[in-house]
Amino acid sequence: MDCPHCGGPIDGGRRKPIEHAYIDDRWHAIVVGDEIRRLTASQWRLLLLLRERFRRFVPLEFLAQWSAANPEDGGDIVTLRLMVMRVRAKLAGSPLGIATLHGVGYGLFPVEELKTSGYGKGRRFTTAVEPEVNLIGERHGRW
Question: Is 17 part of a structural domain of the chain?
Fold first, then answer.
């Protein structure tokens, strides 16, 4: 069945997050070698949202709202950015990483599909190799 508004397929089932040996769903943790890196509830919701949309960018506003402790509050972009930074640090050493598409959002990608570039004052940015192929979001007219 197709959506009468956008023409896309309607799937009543919830998206299934990717499964990976480095991600422990039972304990809400990332396991790298012998190290178990536990995530807070908000960090876990963020990672779950990104896993459900693997290899696609997700809008900042959507991530901020649905990774917040109370989604009805709408979330906060600054808090989201801090959370992404912390989840990125916990993913270090695993084959997955979070990419940034500035002005749009974040996405979870395999590390080999990411490139890291430096930008003043020691800050690093991680982007996907071909972001235009993996782009989703309201601003671009599709989810």
Answer: no
Question: CA–CA separation, 112 vs 16, rounded Å?
Answer: 23
Angle in degrees, 0-180, between the axes of helices 77-91 and 60-67, rounded to the nearest 10: 80
In a domain, 3, yes or no: no
Q: Which portions of the chain are predicted below pLDDT 50?
A: 131-143
CATH number of the domain enclosing 87:
1.10.10.10
**Residue 19 has what pLDDT?**
78
Contact present, 44 and 37 (Cβ < 8 Å): no
Written in H, E and C, the secondary structure of 51-100 is HHCCCCCEEHHHHHHHHCCCHHHCCCHHHHHHHHHHHHHHHCCCCEEEEE
Percent of the chain with pLDDT over 90: 45
- Total domain count for the chain? 1
Give the predicted TM-score (pTM) of the model.
0.74
Task: Say what the pLDDT of residue 31 is.
Answer: 94
> CA 6 → CA 2, 3, 29, 143, distances in Å?
8, 6, 37, 10
**Token duo for residue 81:** 């950015």
7 within domain boundaries: no
Q: What is the pLDDT of residue 70?
A: 79
